[in-house]
Amino acid sequence: MSKKSAVIIGVACVAIVVAILLWWFLRGSGGGPALQPEPSPSPVMTPTPTLAEQLHGRLEGVSLATADPVLRELAAGLSKRPELMRWLAKDDLIRRCVAAVDNIAEGRDPRVHLDFLKPVGTFKVKKSAERVLVDPLSYRRYDTFAGVFVSLDTEGLARLYSEIKPLLDEADREISPPGSSFDQHLRTAIDELLAVPTPSGEVEVRQKVVTWTYADPALEGLSPAQRHLLRMGPENISRIQAKLREIKTALGL
Prior knowledge:
Number of strands: 4
Structural class: mainly alpha
Number of helices: 12
Radius of gyration: 21 Å
Strand order of the largest sheet: 1-2
Order of helices and strands: HHHHHEEHHHHEEHHH
Largest sheet: 2 strands, antiparallel
Shape: globular
Strand content: under 5%
Helix content: 40-55%
């Protein structure tokens, strides 16, 4: 377990991208036409466009190459948490998120794609004469990430996931073998993280040369992606897994 490990949950980034498009739609769809000074006694009612029709016009022309500035512009007001804007400061957001999800689905370490999510501070332990335990202060480094993630709109993900999927699928095809889909990778990535156990009580670790390993073989045997979530601590694990279950159900995965 690296002392400089980064908290990487690629599914959160997918949620961020989709939720931004939700906010984009809602910002432009509030309210009906203004009242006229002398309204006609028999006004002609204009059919309200379906959600798909309204989104189609707003998403038209947005590509992987042009998505970043659109996402940054529309991020204002999406969340009360200022951390979100810092997360969106990097380039090529959709490709980064898709690559991170793909890595997690395979159990690999995705930090290279989302290094901007790394926590502040270093991994800390408490030493006694007999054992070395994870210091609970190490878990607090991940509170910000967990807080922003669980605040995202699950209902919005369900309504708009199908609309942003063409961009996600396009980015996924660039790095995945033929016949696979982003749906598959996202479902597998969520299941990979849901399989992480929530430790009860103190967690013992052992020091190697420059890294720490879990004394419990069941914890140390988790995949690199799963150990990223494990490092966030019991409280954050429970919060994030509950949100992941909501997302998985809402998206029909």
